[in-house]
Amino acid sequence: MKLNVGVFFGGESVEHEVSIISAHQAMNALNKDKYNVIPIYVAKDRKLYSSPLLEDMSNFKDLTGLLNKCTQVNLYQADNHVVIHPVQKSLFSKKDLGTLDLAIPVMHGTNGEDGTIQGFFEMLKLPYAGCDLIAAAVGQDKVLQKHTLENSGLPVTPWFWVYSEEFESKRDEILERVHKIGYPVILKPACTGSSVGISIAHNDAEYIECFEDAGQYDAKVITEQVVAPMREMNCSVIGEPFQARASAIEEVFHGADTDFLDFKDKYQGGSKGSAKSSGSKGMASVSRLVNPDLPEETTRTIQSLALETFRVLGSSGVCRIDFMMNADSGEVYVNEINTIPGSLAFYLWEASGLHFSELMDQLVDLTLTRERRRSRMTYSYDTNLLSTYTESSGAKSAKGAKR
Length: 403
Known about the structure:
Layout: E1 3-10, H1 16-29, E2 35-42, E3 48-50, H2 63-69, E4 71-78, E5 81-86, E6 99-100, E7 102-105, H3 116-124, H4 133-140, H5 142-151, E8 159-163, H6 171-181, E9 185-189, E10 199-201, H7 204-214, E11 220-225, E12 230-240, E13 243-252, H8 263-268, E14 288-290, H9 296-312, E15 317-326, E16 332-338, H10 346-350, H11 356-375, H12 391-397
């Protein structure tokens, strides 16, 4: 019997369009002999839509027209099933549109990769692929992530963070911290992805301008020391925190006018040495070199750091860990984890001998295994506390009651 697999994509983040590309790659890779693939599109206003029309990428060229033809839905749990229910029903329409057995979120950034959609699945008791709520939240918030990595002894560059609202009142103090790190520095919003809002400052005037830009995207802004000369390496990991596998390594290349891999490089570029494509292929189109010329020891170091980063952050499913390497000294630093990487990093796994369809099979298997394990855990226990509760005793024992 086929599993009903809901692929969730879209969302209101700045990576909305990137999510659409990644999701269609994932849906095409799911084996239709094993799974009933059900697209669930999350619009920028958070409304959910479902329709077979959502499976055709070309339909998204006219998004308004597409949604007018799709069915707005909501999800609810009934009789241990998650039901897809149309918001508005006509006289002859189906009462419900089927059920979901599990979800594969392919949503990048805010409300998709940060624990929000994972919390929604938790409330529905719908098994879902990838990181759980806590790991997703920590993985998306670069401040929490860096604290965890640093505390676990993993190598990160010198850095600090402040709230964007603090800049005017603490400008001198913040600039003093920048001077201790030394220019150039890179500024990042804490919770965005795809390099949105990231820029490099070489002096105080540029720093102020870059800070204002980063502050448009998040309440927290990170300042980091620039690694120079730098080589950027990525490695994917699949599995669970206590049992995982690292992929092949790739080196990625930024545009001629930037010092880092920016949004344009990631999603509007072309693979190194390939012909220019007429359409975006997501992260699969980045200018890259898989299995770059690295000393064997460096390759092992990067893969080991990727596995340890995956473990200490409590990650699950398929993630991609990004690294910065000093091209002169060979020192390697963990940059960040992407808990739902662009294109699900399938190109790294194909280079490791794992076909995209097999990668999706493993994601499904990991989801079902985690659900079986969680079903054996205790989350609550029966008490008779309310049977002895009275208004007077409640008032006396209430937490924080006056004494």
